[in-house]
Amino acid sequence: MSTQRIAESSARWRVAIADDHERSRTALRGAISAAGGAIVGESVRCSDVMPMVRRASPDILVSAVGLPDGDGLQAAAQVVQADCAVVLFTSHTEEPLVERARTAGVMGFLLKPLRPAEVAPVLDLAVARFEDNRQLRQSLEGRKVIERAKGTLMARLGLTEDEAFRRLRRAAMDSRRPMVDIARALLVSEAVAKP
Predict the structure, then answer these.
(1) SS (H, E, C) 43-94
(2) Which domain holds residue 174?
(3) How far is CA 155 from the centre of its chain?
(4) Are 60 and 110 in contact (CB under 8 A)?
(5) Percent of the chain at pLDDT exceeding 70
(6) pTM of the predicted model, to two decimals?
(7) Which of 34, 56, 85, 94 is the most core-located residue (most Cβ within 10 A)?
(8) Helix 116-157 × helix 161-175 angle, to 10°
């Protein structure tokens, strides 16, 4: 394993940067490195952000709002959908920008000029919030799958909701697998069995 890979694997965060100003990127690199993070990619254009994120698999993207070929917030929204936390690096704090950032799924702001002491708490909090949101989404998706599976059992076997739930729970316990896995398997088998 290369020295760079070892450093990245033991880093506090794996960070990608999207900013077209060299001074800003230099300041971010220094502050992130000093706080124990590893820079795994840099981009100066919106069009390069998603390929960089796919290639580098960062924990977090720190992005400027204005990039030469487009809106950093649109790129940020795509990155969030690709399962990566985003923090904006900007000097703007107007309400419309904050609302657009919230809608895009941005987890925090670092304000220009950069104060290195703020980097670690902002990135720690952003990564933690993003993980909390991911777990909540997975939990909600799991509940929907379980509800559909219960409905399938109720319709196929004439069970009450409680009986269908108990059957799913018993199957999960007997197989030592999460109930959502049993529910998914049931729904797949039901789809396969349909003519």
Answers:
(1) ECCHHHHHHHHHHHCCCEEEECCEECCEEHHHHHHHHHHCCCEEEEEECCCC
(2) 136-193
(3) 36
(4) no
(5) 95
(6) 0.74
(7) 85
(8) 120
